[in-house]
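Per reviewer request, we include the raw input and output of the structure prediction for the construct analysed in the revised manuscript.
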Amino acid sequence: MVAEVVDRIEREVYVPAPVDRVWRVLTVAEHIHAWYAFGGAEVDLRPDGALRFRWDEHGEFHGRVEVVDPPSRLCFRMAVKPDTQPVHGDSTLVDFRLSSEGEGTRVTVEESGIAGLAAPDEEKGRHAEYARLAWTAALEELCAIAAATHADPPPPGAAQHV
């Protein structure tokens, strides 16, 4: 029996910093370099703008902005293979949503389109598991950076994932 391929993963974190600060950490290349693309990033923050994320061990991944609505939403299509353009069948949709919550910000990231990838189910399953782990770690780093540059260090347990 073949396990059903997950089409979408979602992660969420509360960041003890205001939404405008979290938006900057999410969208400015020098910050992205610190919390996600450790080899560097390039961001053209407009609809149809190009994104590039680099990792020494994985290569350069290309993305294309689909929706940008500061400071609440950034949605982009991202290639699943290095050095390729994000096209349907070989890319997923990554959707960040930010909302004010008390004195902080709730950040949700959803990656979808995994089931529609032009790949064997086993490869799709590996991508989904890697995405779960990668977005969990990335949100923890984003939270730490936004909180540290805003105020005192976050209280224990501030990076709570759903």
